[in-house]
């Protein structure tokens, strides 16, 4: 049994650094400028996250059992967090669609974890869900800083409002679930698992909200986020890693689908946003093979591993895969669930022990 403190200094963004790096090199200042400023802001916030870890975060009162406690703030294009309160729990929708989308996304995330896995908020103890919108100017990212969600409006040229895709909201909040459970180290394969788990639960939140089966879902992360001028459909594809975009400015989606194309790099914390395509694809294959609602069986297995206490902070793909096989057998027996999970990892080239 591994005991996890849940307070690693992790700063998690939805847009990978390698995408912003590429964009920052664009010849058009209208494209390069916002990307460079976003990279600078991300570096600052990453440092602030480390300081918060050292000093300690402010304790927050929990919501009522089984009920979300949401607050959405408006940064008004500044960078002071959390900003001005725009909508609290139970308040009626206002005129700002961004505020309303953030509020709804926080609620959808809370609902999935409560209804599917009986988890009361991201920490399991009713943690209030806080978000800030309209962060900075032309800010091309959204992030979880260990305490709250933050959304940029995008530059309108490459990225649109980051509250548009509900799976972006779910992805970032799922980093909080990992923070309070397995607390996977944010580097190399453990970091790629960290990113993949957020993609998995982000996708499940989207599917749960839309009432989609595994066959009906698009399995895209960030669909609707890319501006019309971009040649692409989303940030990532769990169904077909490496196909989400192929654009003159952004370049080509570098995610591998199997271990044959595993990327070795020192950038992006050892390729956490890149190699996450491999466990992402494994989850897709397992969920698609099982059919029905992905959160019910494949999602349950992944959740069991994330929260079961056996997943090491330094877990490699083989460790995670082995635990999913064990979890499938323990929860469902030697049936189709075990077969689907085992075959999914085999198909992406990850062995199980």
Summarize the structure in words.
The chain has 353 residues and is α+β, with helices and mostly antiparallel strands. 42% of the residues lie in helices and 9% in strands. The protein contains 10 helices and 10 strands. It has helices at residues 17-24, 29-55, 97-117, 166-180, 188-210, 268-271, 277-290, 298-307, 317-332, 336-347; strands spanning 12-13, 70-74, 84-88, 129-133, 142-144, 149-151, 220-221, 236-237, 246-247, 251-252. The protein has a 6-stranded mixed β-sheet with strand order 1-5-6-4-2-3, with helices on one face. Strands 7-8 form a two-stranded antiparallel sheet. Strand 5 and strand 6 form a beta hairpin. Helix 3 (97-117) packs across helix 4 (166-180).
Strand/helix succession? EHHEEHEEEHHEEEEHHHHH
| Sheet having the most strands | 6 strands, mixed
User: Termini, distance in Å?
Assistant: 18 Å
Q: What's the count of strands?
A: 10
Helix content: 40-55%
- Residue fraction in strands: 5-15%
Q: What gyration radius follows from the Cα positions, in whole Å?
A: 19 Å
Q: Outline, from the CA principal axes?
A: globular
Strands of the widest sheet, in order across it, are 1-5-6-4-2-3
Average of per-residue pLDDT values: 93
Number of helices: 10
Detail the poorly predicted runs: 1-9, 52-59
Which secondary-structure class do the elements indicate? alpha+beta
Quickly list its features.
single chain; about 350 residues; alpha+beta; 6-stranded mixed sheet; two-stranded antiparallel ribbon; 10 helices; 10 strands; about 40% helix
Fold topology:
Elements: E1 12-13, H1 17-24, H2 29-55, E2 70-74, E3 84-88, H3 97-117, E4 129-133, E5 142-144, E6 149-151, H4 166-180, H5 188-210, E7 220-221, E8 236-237, E9 246-247, E10 251-252, H6 268-271, H7 277-290, H8 298-307, H9 317-332, H10 336-347
Parallel strand pairs: 2-4, 4-6
Antiparallel strand pairs: 1-5, 2-3, 5-6, 7-8, 9-10
Helix pairs in contact: 1-2, 3-4, 4-5, 5-7, 7-10, 8-9, 9-10
């Amino acid at each position: 049994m591994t005991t996890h403190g849940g307070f690693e200094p992790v700063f998690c963004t939805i847009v990978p650094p390698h995408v912003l790096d590429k964009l920052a090199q664009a010849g058009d200042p209208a494209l390069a400028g916002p990307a460079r400023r976003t990279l600078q802001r991300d570096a600052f916030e990453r440092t602030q996250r480390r300081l918060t870890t050292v000093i300690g975060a402010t304790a927050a009162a929990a919501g009522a059992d089984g009920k979300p406690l949401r607050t959405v703030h408006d940064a008004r294009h500044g960078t002071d967090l959390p900003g001005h309160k725009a909508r609290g729990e139970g308040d009626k929708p206002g005129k700002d669609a961004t505020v309303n989308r953030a509020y709804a996304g926080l609620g959808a995330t809370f609902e999935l974890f409560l209804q599917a896995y009986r988890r009361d908020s991201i920490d399991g103890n009713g943690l209030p869900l806080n978000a800030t919108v309209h962060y900075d100017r032309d800010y091309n990212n959204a992030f979880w800083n260990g305490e709250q969600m933050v959304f940029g409006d995008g530059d309108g040229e490459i990225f649109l409002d980051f509250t548009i895709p509900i799976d972006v909201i779910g992805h970032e909040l799922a980093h909080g679930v990992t923070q309070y459970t397995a607390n996977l180290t944010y580097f190399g394969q453990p970091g790629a698992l960290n990113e993949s788990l957020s993609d998995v639960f982000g996708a499940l939140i989207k599917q749960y909200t839309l009432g989609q089966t595994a066959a009906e879902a698009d399995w895209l992360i960030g669909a609707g986020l890319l501006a019309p001028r971009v040649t692409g459909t989303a940030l990532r594809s769990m169904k077909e890693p490496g196909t989400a975009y192929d654009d003159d400015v952004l370049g080509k989606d570098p995610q591998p689908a199997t271990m044959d194309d595993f990327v070795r790099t020192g950038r992006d914390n050892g390729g956490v946003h890149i190699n996450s395509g491999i466990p992402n694809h494994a989850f897709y294959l397992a969920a698609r093979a099982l059919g029905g609602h992905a959160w019910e069986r494949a999602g349950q297995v992944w959740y069991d591993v994330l929260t079961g206490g056996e997943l090491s902070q330094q877990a490699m793909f083989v460790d995670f895969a082995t635990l999913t096989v064990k979890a499938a057998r323990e929860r469902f027996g030697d049936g189709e669930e075990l077969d689907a999970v085992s075959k999914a990892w085999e198909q992406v080239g990850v062995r199980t022990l």
